[in-house]
Every structure is written in structure tokens, then in C-alpha cells.
Amino acid sequence: MGEPLLRINDLVVEFGRSRWSRFRALDSVSLDIHPGETVGLVGESGSGKTTLGRAVLGLAPVTAGTVAFEGRDITRLPRRARRELANDIQVVFQDPYGSLSSTMSVQEILTEPLRASGIGRSDSIQRVRTLLDQVGLPANSGQRYPNEFSGGQRQRIAIARALAIRPRLIVCDEPVSALDLSTQARVLDLLRQIQDDTGVAYLFVSHDLAVVRHLSHRVAVMYRGQIVESGNASTVTRTPSNPYTQRLLLSSPIPDLNRQRERRMSRSMLQPQSA
Ligand SMILES: Nc1ncnc2c1ncn2[C@@H]1O[C@H](COP(=O)(O)OP(=O)(O)OP(=O)(O)O)[C@@H](O)[C@H]1O
Predict the structure, then answer these.
(1) Is 124 in the pocket of ligand 1 (CB under 6 A)?
(2) Do 198 and 20 contact (CB within 8 A), yes or no?
(3) Does 224 sit in the ligand 1 pocket, CB within 6 Å?
(4) Which of 26, 49, 217, 248 shows its CA 20 to 30 Å from the CA of 7?
């Protein structure tokens, strides 16, 4: 494997002002992500997954360690350099309802990052068309507003926005956990399709081992701010060696999302797919 796209090295994040109230949310975390790779990050609530994603985005108070993107230290970038980095690193959040402005049309939502990166009006219009097509939304979606779409469709809009300026890495923080199972599977398939087409890498945060297995090449398991196990996605999610991962697996047995979806579809005999 060549050079990693992202290298997280011995990262420490602490919250709290005083020495006595300080809480270590990340404790010497190291993780690499390679171009075009999906690394799933699992762990129970409070284990530090979101904090790690936020640290990559420059949104967490890093006490020690480094985050490097394509070999460049991005741990503590000044605001302007961080804004420029948004061309390369984007994010998709969990909540497809709260993460999109309700007063902006889809066209405006998708044009905003294009304009911010200096892309002209006619190129933007063309790019929005391509993005809508890429995420499987109708061509006339641009004139509509987020509240006119379902949760799955909104998440497609959020994915289109993240893709707008062709990032190399997307931090996906629980991007499907607000969606029902069959919609989850379709959005995950979309993320994989986009990765095949564009070579984007994902840091995929989820508490759900089934979701992570569905999409990831490698999986890292977090427990109390540390990565306790990492490796090939199938090995970690089927035959984990760490006792904590084994407990996690027992507490959330993994259904096969595709098989569930097939069962559901054969039951409902192909209702229109709106997600
Ligand atoms: N801004 C903050 N100030 C203080 N503590 C915080 C802050 N953000 C996170 N924490 C703490 O850091 C720990 C890790 O939180 P984090 O949100 O990263 O966990 P998580 O694994 O993503 O959990 P969940 O699956 O519930 O989202 C938790 O104990 C949390 O309370």
C-alpha cells in the first residue's frame, strides 16, 4: 500500500478547562486512511468516534499528536488554510433534517460550496446537474426545498453537497442511522458507487457493526477513547480478537443488510424507491 491519504498519529483530545476537570476523550489514537478506502469506526456511545471525526475536521481541541493529510500536518491550521482544506475534506452528518438549511433551495445548497471555491455560474449549474444525477435525485430537484424530500433523499442532497468540490476524503458521521433499514442499504450502496466512480475515501463513523461491515474495507473499534482493535472489516466484524469487540458483536448481532432488503422488496413487490 502506498502513502496514506490521512495519517492520525498518537492523537490526544481532552475536554474541560482545569487540570482536575479534564476529560480525555481520545487517548493516543493512531489510524491511517488510504486513497479510495473506507475505514469504519465503531464503538459504543461515548467511546470517542465523533470526536475523532471532528479532530480530522479541525473541530476538536487536540492536546497532543498529529493529523496529516497527504503528508502535510493539518492538526492546527489557521482558519483560512482550514477553509481551503474543505476542498479536500468534507463531512456528512447524521441528521438529514438539521444539516440542510430549510430556507435554501437544493440548487442554492449545492451551489454554495462551488461558489466558495471560485467556480463560475454556468459551470456551477452544470455541476449541480451532474451531482443530482450522481446521487440519483430527479433533475428538477434544484428548484425544490429540503422539506419537500424524504429523509433518505435529504441525505442524498447532503452527500451531493459534500461531493460538490470533489473532495478526497469524506467524514461520514452516522450518515444512515436516522434512516430506516431499506433506505440505509440504498444510501450505503450509493456511497460505495460514488467511491468506485470518484476514488473518494471515507472515514465512516457508526455505532452499528452491520452498517460498517457493509461498506468498510477496514474497521477500527473504539473503547473509552482508544482504538482497541483494527483490521480487515470482515475479520474484525466476524471473528474479533478483542473481548470488547466480541461483546459489541454479541450485543448487536449483525444482520445482512442486502439480504434484509431483498426480503423486504420481495414482500412489498417493488414499491417506488424514493429514498
Ligand atoms: N465538547 C465536549 N465537551 C466535553 N466533553 C465532550 C465534548 N464532546 C464530547 N465529549 C465527551 O467525549 C466523549 C466522547 O464523545 P463522542 O461524541 O466522541 O462519542 P461517540 O463515540 O461519538 O458517541 P455517540 O455514538 O453517542 O455519538 C464522551 O464522554 C463525551 O461526553
Answers:
(1) no
(2) no
(3) no
(4) 248
* Domain assignment of residue 275, yes or no: no
The total of structural domains in the chain comes to 1
Structural domain span for residue 218: 6-270
Substitution site in 26, 27, 51, 205 for ligand 1 pocket (most atoms within 8 Å of beta carbon): 51
Closest atom of ligand 1 to CA, residue 47: 21
Residue type, 106: V
The answer to the question of residue 1 being in a domain is no
Q: What is the pLDDT along the chain (275 residues), one digit of tens a residue?
A: 688 999 999 999 999 877 778 899 999 999 999 999 999 999 999 999 999 999 999 999 999 999 999 999 999 999 889 988 988 999 998 887 788 999 999 999 999 999 888 888 888 999 999 999 989 999 999 999 999 999 889 999 999 999 998 999 999 999 888 888 888 888 899 899 999 999 999 999 998 888 898 899 999 999 999 999 999 999 999 899 999 888 888 876 555 555 554 455 444 434 444 45
Q: Is 240 in the pocket of ligand 1 (CB under 6 A)?
A: no
ipTM: 0.96
Length of the chain in residues, anyone? 275
Q: Rounded CA gap, 249 and 240, in Å?
A: 8
Q: What is the CATH number of the domain that holds 18?
A: 3.40.50.300
Burial of 15 (0-12, 13-18, 19+ CB in 10 A): middle
Ligand 1 within 6 A of CB of 4: no
